[in-house]
Predict the structure.
Amino acid sequence: MEEIGFLGLGNMGKAMSITLLCHGVNVTVWNRTHSKCDELLDYGASVAKTAAAVVKKCKYTIAMLSDPSAALSVVFDKGGVLEQICKGKGYIDMSTVDADTSSKISEAITSKGGSFLEAPVSGSRKLAEDGELVILAAGVKALYEEAHSLFDIMGKKTFFLGHVGNGAKTKLLVNMLMGSVLAAFSEGVLLAEKSELDPESILNALDQGRFANPLLLTKGISMIESSYSHAFPLEQQLKDMRLSLALANEKAVSMDVAAVANEAFEKASSMGFGGFDFSAVHEAVKDLSIRRHID
């Protein structure tokens, strides 16, 4: 395949672009904070000065950006994707955004003759490093088929979900469920501790039964040790909870459990844990429990 562009070298984008480079893909990268590109040079990447320059050089450009605002900015701002996108070029946005944002980007890209695919991913930085992501694609089927070899490098499974918006909504649903379960699981860890049980024994027992889940086992240990090394930032989980609740409100679906979980993530963020792994929601669960009993 021809040289691939990659926009956004944050926690996930950096890992994904390095995975592509390590598999022999020629990649040209760009990031707003230009210094983040330096490490990629050691892996053989080329560096461009603007997002537009990446699109001009590459037939296919991937974006992995932090939130809807960043995703829109990279496309529409000066030096952005729209300045060079044209017929014969494809733009693949793998950011986690809402369906409306994805649709706006799609309309802009196609209006210039380009083809668009949304392809948000489910997985952590470690899974990105290992090429074990789950990719939730939607949009132009032909571009999906052309990009499938790249998805096979970055992920273990790829789904094509139809028209633009379906990928975004599916990703928000996945992360809403993940956040809700993790917040409830945190309460279980806290109850085990307060009941003078050995939390690690509880985790091991769960791991041998129907509730076995590698995510919960790993995050449970983080909670027990109060060690929240940066894997999936809590601030990103909070963003996804907010977007999923906004989608639920739009569809008039009551999300009581997710709303309560969102409060815990909001609290953890206000406590200064936004940049820590999202298992740090446990600190908010502990704090909220103490406050409720004092009240």
